[in-house]
């Protein structure tokens, strides 16, 4: 009975160990961060970025902290950045901005007193260093136990240059007082963008008229890129404003930047109907005010011609009767027009 209990306990323990191992591996595989953003370096500069430091010992230049070798030394070859100072910094400058929110330091070798004890991880915003993460009291015993140390923090800002600023090492007494074997940086991978939709699936426009499409994305901070399938028929700006150019059909596409998710709206552009004699011209100004004019076909054509060719502070004159006045003349400034529509009757 005792032996049976012992066997059952052992099986249960093994099962729990396997389960824990499985969960740890899965958590690592799905941690939501990119691969290392820094390609392997063989000198202080590459096409992807530049390594630098406050100072370095002759055989341990800055780039060796980004050479892909995790050990401090292999034989007589050093594979790390090191400095003769007890404090100092190691930096990497990307050619394109990155939103780093995780970094990993590998420090392994027979001299753990070289490795950082207290430091900050910082980003350069163009005028000053911004502290993104702080660590303290990472002892030489901790580096012996865990040569790989990972650190995460919240950061959504994009910077070109990041650094580890060592405030205190672990008491090395040799020529090199502090150093880092390997430094890696990662971005958080966003998977929160799920959808995009437009408020109108199709637009019916007259040549020269305008309308606006509004995109709804999740999350609402995602950037939308607008494009037209045929800009000779209808154009769209990066605010979703659509302008009809000539008769025909075009597709307006709104795409979430850097993600293959999009929504479309079909635009059908028609020529103005010259058969009607009167229409209501409704003009919406950029301040939200709408002006309406009951005008003839000739006025509509003149207005469309003016709108296509005018710009800036050019004005178009409308005359209408408003009691108790005999006649009122209003002037519409071209660059104050947000959109307009023609309603035939």
From TrEMBL:
<dbReference type="InterPro" id="IPR003343">
    <property type="entry name" value="Big_2"/>
</dbReference>
<dbReference type="InterPro" id="IPR008964">
    <property type="entry name" value="Invasin/intimin_cell_adhesion"/>
</dbReference>
<feature type="domain" description="BIG2">
    <location>
        <begin position="192"/>
        <end position="265"/>
    </location>
</feature>
<feature type="signal peptide">
    <location>
        <begin position="1"/>
        <end position="29"/>
    </location>
</feature>
<dbReference type="Pfam" id="PF02368">
    <property type="entry name" value="Big_2"/>
</dbReference>
<keyword id="KW-0732">Signal</keyword>
<protein>
    <submittedName>
        <fullName>Ig-like domain (Group 2)</fullName>
    </submittedName>
</protein>
């Amino acid at each position: 009975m005792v032996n049976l209990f012992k066997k059952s306990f052992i099986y249960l323990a093994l099962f729990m160990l396997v389960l824990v191992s499985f969960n740890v591996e899965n958590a690592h595989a799905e941690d939501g961060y990119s691969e290392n953003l820094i390609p392997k370096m063989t000198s202080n500069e590459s096409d992807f970025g530049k390594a630098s430091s406050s100072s370095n010992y002759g055989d341990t230049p800055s780039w060796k902290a980004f050479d892909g070798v995790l050990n401090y030394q292999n034989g007589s070859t050093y594979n790390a950045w090191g400095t003769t100072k007890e404090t100092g910094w190691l930096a990497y400058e990307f050619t394109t901005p990155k939103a780093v929110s995780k970094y990993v330091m590998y420090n392994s070798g027979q001299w753990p007193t070289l490795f950082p004890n207290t430091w900050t991880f910082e980003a350069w915003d163009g005028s000053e260093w911004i502290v993104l993460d702080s660590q303290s009291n990472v002892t030489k015993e901790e580096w012996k136990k865990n040569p790989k140390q990972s650190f995460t923090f919240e950061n959504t800002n994009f910077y070109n240059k990041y650094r580890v600023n060592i405030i205190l090492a672990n008491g090395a007494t040799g020529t090199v007082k502090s150093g880092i074997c390997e430094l890696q940086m990662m971005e958080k991978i966003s998977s929160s963008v799920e959808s995009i939709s437009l408020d109108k699936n199709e637009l019916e426009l007259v040549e020269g008229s305008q309308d606006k499409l509004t995109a709804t994305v999740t999350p609402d901070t995602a950037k939308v890129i607008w494009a037209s399938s045929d800009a000779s028929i209808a154009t769209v700006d990066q605010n979703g404003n659509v302008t009809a150019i000539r008769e025909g059909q075009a597709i307006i596409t709104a795409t979430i930047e850097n993600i293959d998710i999009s929504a479309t709206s079909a635009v059908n552009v028609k020529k103005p109907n010259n058969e009607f004699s009167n229409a209501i011209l409704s003009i919406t100004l950029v301040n939200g005010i709408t002006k309406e004019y009951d005008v003839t076909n000739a006025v509509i054509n003149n207005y469309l011609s003016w709108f296509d060719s005018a710009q800036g502070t050019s004005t178009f004159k409308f005359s209408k009767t408003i009691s108790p006045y005999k006649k009122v003349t209003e002037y519409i400034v071209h660059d104050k027009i947000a959109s307009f529509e023609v309603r035939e009757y």
